[in-house]
Amino acid sequence: MLPIHPIMVQSFAAIEREIGVHNFTTLEYAIIRRVIHSTADFDFKELIYFSPNAIASGIAALRGGVPIITDVSMVKQGIVNLVAQTFNNPIISAVEQASVALPGKTRTETGLLECWRKFPEAIYVIGNAPTALLALCNELKSSSINPALIIGAPVGFISVVESKAALANTSINQIRVEGRKGGSPVAAAIVNALIAIAYNQS
């Protein structure tokens, strides 16, 4: 079992007292609780969507050592310590793979497309860049290989809702944050919760 810091134990207890009635499974709740712990925002109770096989597929992929592709470095930094303590999956930040952007694209989008060509079966974690999520969803239309899991949690006002709608229109295993909310801390919290579940069950 992974150790839990006493402050996190106290925080989880506070969340338990405040979250109220819900219909989440035990594993869904473990993920949502960690997101709320990272954000102090109970709105995520209503915003996080799990496709039917998302958690199981994510656990299997983590245990299988598949790469974790993050859109930005902040998400990578948010998960690197726990990954190193557990399954030691390769972690690749898409934006770090592109020194310059392709014409008409962002650096993150450019780097993510490069990662997709190399690791289509990976776990993809989008916590910042809706352009990267849109590009990934577009690639899925003509792919015979599916990612193990997509975590779609970009934040902001431009193309964010549209990118999440594009993800929702796929049949890919996904954990998705609806609406404008999300962000790197949210995406990292989802991954870290999955890692803890996978490790503690093994």
Helix % is: 40-55%
State the end-to-end distance: 9 Å
Q: CATH superfamily assignment?
A: Cobalamin biosynthesis CobH/CbiC, precorrin-8X methylmutase
Q: Which parts are unreliable, with pLDDT below 50 for 5 consecutive residues or more?
A: none
What is the CATH level 1 assignment? Alpha Beta
CATH architecture: 3-Layer(aba) Sandwich
Query: How many domains make up the 3D coordinates?
Result: 1
How much of the residues is beta strand, in percent?
5-15%
> Class by helix and strand content?
alpha/beta
Question: Would you list the SSEs in sequence order as H and E?
Answer: HHHEHEHEHEHEHEH
CATH topology: Rossmann fold
Spatially, the strands of the biggest sheet line up as 1-6-5-4-2-3
Number of helices: 9
How do the helices and strands line up, and which of them pair or pack?
Blueprint: H1 6-18, H2 26-39, H3 44-47, E1 48-50, H4 54-63, E2 68-70, H5 73-85, E3 91-93, H6 107-118, E4 123-126, H7 130-140, E5 149-152, H8 160-168, E6 174-177, H9 184-201
Parallel strand pairs: 2-3, 2-4, 4-5, 5-6
Antiparallel strand pairs: 1-6
Helix pairs in contact: 1-2, 2-9, 4-9, 5-9, 6-7, 7-8
